Amino acid sequence: xxxxxxxARLDIKGENLIKGIHLEGLRVIGSPSEYARKYxxxxxxxxxxxxxxxxxxxxxxLSEIIKLVAKYIFIPMxxxxxxxxxxxxxxxxxxGADKVAINTAAVARPNLISEISNSLGSQAMVLSVEAKKIxxxxxxxxxxxxxESSGIDVIEWLIExxxxxxxxxxxxSVDFEGTRKGFDLNLIxxxxxxxxxxxxxxxxxxxxxxxxxxxxxxxxxxxxxxxILHYDRMTFKKIREESISHGINVRKYV
Amino acid sequence: xxxIEKKSIKDIYKLSSNIKFCKxxxxxxxxxxxxxxxxxxxSACRFAEHKRKGIDWNERQNExxxxxxxxxxxxxxxxxxxxxSGGKDSNYVAHFLKEKHxxxxxxxxxAPHIYTEIGKQNLTxxxxxxxxxxxxxxxxxxxxxxxxxAFIEMGDPFQPFIFGQYSAPFRxxxxxxxxxxxxxxxxxxxxxxxxxNADRASLSYEDFISNRFSSVFPSSFEKYGIKKxxxxxxxxxxNELSEIKKLKIEQHFFSYYxxxxxxxxxxxxxxxxxxxxxxxxxxxxxxxxxxLDDKLDGFHFYLxxxxxxxxxxxxDAAHEIRDGHITREEGVALxxxxxxxxxKKYYQEFLDYCSISEQEFxxxxxxxxxxxxxxxxxxxxxxxxxxxxxx
Lengths: 254, 391
Hints:
The complex is a heterodimer. Chain A is of the alpha/beta class. Chain A has helices at 32-42, 54-57, 62-69, 86-94, 104-108, 111-120, 154-164, 185-194, 208-216, 227-230, 236-245; strands spanning 5-13, 16-21, 24-30, 46-51, 77-80, 99-102, 125-135, 138-143, 148-153, 168-173, 199-202, 222-225. Chain A has a single domain (5-245), classed as Aldolase class I (TIM Barrel, Alpha-Beta Barrel), CATH 3.20.20. Chain A has eleven helices and twelve strands. Chain B is mostly helical. In chain B, 47% of the residues lie in helices and 8% in strands. Chain B has a three-stranded parallel sheet. A three-stranded mixed sheet of chain B has the order 4-6-5. In chain B, strands 7-8 form a two-stranded antiparallel ribbon. Classes of the chains: A alpha/beta, B mainly alpha.
């Protein structure tokens, strides 16, 4: 059985770690670097930093935060939000990130995926997808932090992105994000059935059972969590213990 | 339709020709009734400061408990009317009164012109979460005529909704003899008005509706061929007004008793009443959680943009700056990006609803264009003083 990665997702706006519901109503949680350090020491496998409003404001504010946390965090870090070019991606990796996550810019110009993948390696090219359900078994790609619809079908987009060289997909359900109601299992399952690159399920984890289901029923390769960690509903330690007792293959962290 | 007469926005709304922006948020002095102090800060920002520092919210909470104690029914009969749409704000007010104060609210909904799917769904979820609701829907033909007339006459097609929103709940209060009516926020202090009103819990009905009706009353629409009898449904009769006095029906603002933070209302109503934000952002702004149940309300905000140069995004950004959710710099960027975006999604439906052509629409829009706000350059209208160019 494949090893499941546990990922802390930190959505950032300006200087603050924030959290919304359906990517809306962005509440300030605290300092991103403090939370990053906390999740690192708790035993996260990876961290994802998303400047959630970078496209909204046409900027990226993550550089300072990444530079700071890269000094003391030694697990893979993915950085997304407002990355528009290969040059932007190179800058982010130079600061200490391991991968870049791209949504809006890739939708606008899909070839950006190939450019980054060819230059930096596919492992560094994470496609971030904000999926909004439009009917049973059909989802649409959204951009700009769940605010703009693109008219693109999620599954078709995933297949295209895989062909263009994306190494991994961060798949966020706008419908379930921040709700604590569980993952959109159908979305994740349909996605993992359609492409072979790893999929990080994101959006909706409220309890361990949700994690269990998205891994065992929808075959997610990794799970991104935010609300459940930020509001101290569960810790990585607890999630690992539960995983092991349910026979899910996770890293044993001591 | 006859000739559309050009309006003088400056005179009608008593606006200064010298456009200034608040130093703290992004609102301009073109918002009717807003005041700027000597430091160039608007009254809504001053009120936000007052909310943070000048009010003892525990004391206000005690006042709310006392008010509820005075009104609470012992046998479970309704004891408070909450005018509500199923939106985040009224859901919060109704739920809080019911669950935290053991009140028995009757929620009265005045229907939107044309329901959006999400708006209808939110009202259903709200009722399903344990509330009694009366939905009042006006006669479709009369409402359309009135909407068209209000669009032409007042430059605001949304006004018929506002008429009903502030009369229907009181009519139900009279019928059921419920002496307490709880509205959400006091717009005249939250969004800009005189600070002398900062600490008022309630208003007499007459004062309450006078600025909400912009001093134009439904009865004045008879000249558009709408029968007097039909217009009476949009405002309270003199008999009803005396009933209000006799039954001692009081209108209160929830924002007086509890610190009003729309974003927290959103969280509260998602957690407790099944509320969902709009799937996409609303046209003309960045937000997804406010004012989303009526297909026509985009035109209400668009007309404000035409008249005063500030649309929906400018007012959303201003609230969020005051509540500390975004910085002024972010607010300015959002206004530049979204403000004044044309509400194209429901444009055709709006034209059909009002039975007007595109040409008539444009004539009406231009008749309401603030003469000191706009200039015509390279065959398009542009703002003379946008906030992002403000020094």
